[in-house]
Fold:
Amino acid sequence: MRVVLAILALALPTVAAADPIITDQAAAKQVLGKHALTLQWLGFGDLGTAGTINVLAKEGHWLLSGMQQAKEGFVTLDGEVVAVGKNSFDFQGNVVTRADGNNNDQPCARQGRYTFLRKPGKKYWRMQPIENPCDPVVDYIDIYLR
Structure:
């Protein structure tokens, strides 16, 4: 009977954990928690007007959500962190931006997988690609280290 159960266990597909693929534990610790969030079109270009993003590990998922809102517009992110490396992390989800003068002042929604890249010497990860799909401009969507 044990042999049959063992064979069945090997033959049945396993359910993969939804935790992100982590190749750097120190970087993973930096990603979790609350961070400042900015879109360069909003506020005064400093952290005093930044929004907040939170990365929370819950039931096998690393949930990422937050927003920055200002009189000039907003940026929201909602989804999951799916991979973490030394200088980047990948996010799968929704990003919506709206900034005065861009896209006829209408929101620009995008959905997919995006990389937040941290270049040497910088204290933030910047979303890649930076091109706005709704207007011929670039969006600097930055998540700052704590």
About this structure: The helical segments are 2-11, 25-31. The chain has one domain: 17-144.
